[in-house]
Amino acid sequence: MEQTNFQLKKQDTQSQEWSKRLHHATRATREDWIGRGISYLCIGVIILVVASMLWFITSKGIATFTQNHVSLWKFLSGTDWSPSQGKIGALPMIVGSFAVTFAAAIVATPFAVGTAIFMTEISPNKGRKFLQPVIELLVGIPSVVYGFIGLAVVVPFMRHLVGGSGFGIISATFVLFVMVLPTITSMTVDSLRAVPRYYKEASLALGATRWQTVSKVILRSATPGILTAVIFGMARAFGEALAVQMVIGNAAVMPKDLISAASTLTSQLTTGIGDTIDGTLPNNALWSLALILLLMSLFFNALVRVIAKRGQLKHER
Amino acid sequence: MNKGSKLAMGIAAISLLLVGCGKATSSTSSKESSAALSGKVTAVGSTALQPLAAKAGSNFTAKNSKVNLTVQGGGSGTGLSQVQAGAVSIGDSDIFAEEKDGIKADKLTDHKVAVVGMAPVVNKDTGIKNLKMAQLKQIFTGKITNWKEVGGKDEKIVIINRAQGSGTRATFENAVLKGTDAVKSQEQDSNGAVQKIVATTPGAVSYLAFSYFTNKLQAVSIDNVTPTDNNVETNKWKIWSYEHMYTKGTPDKATTAFLKYMDSKTVQDSLVKDMGYISIHDMKVTKDAKGVVTQN
Question: Exposed e or buried b for every residue in B258-294, given b needs 16+ CB within 10 A?
Fold first, then answer.
């Protein structure tokens, strides 16, 4: 009697233990929870930071229009930038930013595509051995170094070549060309490598020469990727501040030609921000410039997504 | 607006958390003894004053090891707005708080710690050594565009300004342009950049603090008065400004001691002069915020 009772008790505790084990999380599950918790926390912090930055720049940026009652149209189309006298026409900087961005992209793209074709089709071995490290090195050089070289080499060179002071859109284009080249090249290389092998094989089998294959098949089918690369390069050029500021001359006037001093949104921001007082018009106007920059980079990102989507559809067809 | 600044503080707090966890522990240990001077002093603002403030600051902390003193640049505008907001103990500025929009000067206390003279500088190949004040004004308002019109070489004038709102520019324009607007031109954000660009760009003209003169560029006399410390002290040379350290309300003990140290003979008679500034004790005139000069 005692014995069976004891056994029963033992069985009972055993089953209790089992149910405890089965109804409660194991160590592995708990680790899983902790891991997930940490990831969510990190994501949460990042989202919070990004969201508050967006909110902060937007709220500061629109203060020019809500508090200082400058009309948005006057801000975007005005050509007189003298914030301390209440005149804030941002068009010279907007034009300057777009001019250097497009010019740099136009100059850099042929070089980037040429290099990328060399690295993937013509001589993949040398490409991987020599060009890859060189391009990676170019990415790693800090922008202040580019700016310094621009100031010490490019500006005097342009002065001798085309006259004027040497500061201007053309010098900025030259510096930005070197800065966006690695971005465009490495992304173009990726997109060329992503072209399915059988495209190339089919083309060669049909009797096309190597050049015909490269120009008519590979480049054609990699076009969305190359466009994405160019837009990423443009986004970098648009947001570059320091190097441009050192060579463009920072004159807030409408650019008449490529060889006289101009300014960009970023160069105006970096030169002006230390000398303005929080909450005054000159300061708010700079925040508005920052808002334009933010909106433009969002636009570039959206554009990349659209192109990527259309490119995918094309490949599947 | 208020919400905005709170959010900004939040962002700053997060980034501090992420970046500088180690920093928080160090300041607590310095609050122990009451006899020795202790505390935290932060001076932010003018880059023209920064080298002097930094050097004086490190000498000061060598004697008062329990004081944690930080000197940062950022520009006069930053200095004034930060001290007004109570974010820093000292706001460094090249200009009077009264001259800056958005600053309530009556809430701040001015401590003048040095004087800086500024002069027009030109590229050496222009052949210009002296200009009349009227000519200088015409150059910077865009009425004269070639050096030959003022007796120099046949060469286009390239004007290089400091950024709008810069203390050096404000001082120069107050003394030379007297209210008229400068012609739109290149703008650079520091004395160092101006120095380099004027030295290398043919036909360039700008203005610099005396301490930035080099033999690679030509400092220009105005109406045959040479830009020297002695001429500034008597106001014969008109382009000069005070370097200010502004405080708000009653500064704490450490800040007061540092300001007193800045005004002491040790700093004024040696350090100030060694670093190319003019001692506040040597000035024979006083200038007020409106630019009115009186003999001492």
Answer: bbebbeeeebbeebbeeebbbbbeebeeebeeeeeee
